[in-house]
Amino acid sequence: MMETVEMLDKCKEKLGVSSDYALAKELDIRQARLTSYRKGREHPDVYVCFRIAEILGESPSSIIAQVEAKNAKNENKALYFKRFFSMAVLWISLVLVLPGFTGSYGTAYAAGNTLETPAVIDFTPHYAKYAKDG
User: Fold this and answer.
1) What domain range includes position 119?
2) Could you tell me if 95 and 121 lie in one domain?
3) Half-sphere exposure of residue 38, counting CA atoms within 13 Å on the CB side?
4) Is residue 54 domain-shared with residue 76, that is, in the same domain?
5) Which residue of 34, 41, 42, 87 has the lowest C-beta tally within 10 Å?
6) What are phi and psi of 20, to 5 degrees?
7) DSSP state of 62
8) Over the stretch 7-18, which tens digit does the pLDDT of each residue have?
9) Same domain for 114 and 80?
10) What are 95-123's pLDDT values in tens digits?
11) Which residues are 108's β-sheet partners?
């Protein structure tokens, strides 16, 4: 999990800006508010979390969960957001990995088939087949 300061620094890097003034302008906030984020006096609201997510190319819910996990006053709330972030990372990882298991990976060697004539398994969901017909 990233700290808010790390997120802000990564945003500056992605945007190619060197000043907090320029970053604040990109996030559509005042520089004083950005300074408060850096000093830990305030934490980003939902709008700023969405802007950070957009800049970093991450899920807004992941950014919100990280911010809330770090800033929750109640330990149960902090734990909830930490779990949520962990699950979000897991789902994002699966979404990135699973598309690789199609096409040639859908090949099975059934009884009677050789390496030259493999049996192909169709991983297309059944509802997709019906949608094509209609």
Assistant:
1) 103-133
2) no
3) 12
4) yes
5) 41
6) -70, -30
7) H
8) 999 999 999 999
9) no
10) 555 555 554 444 444 455 555 555 554 54
11) 119
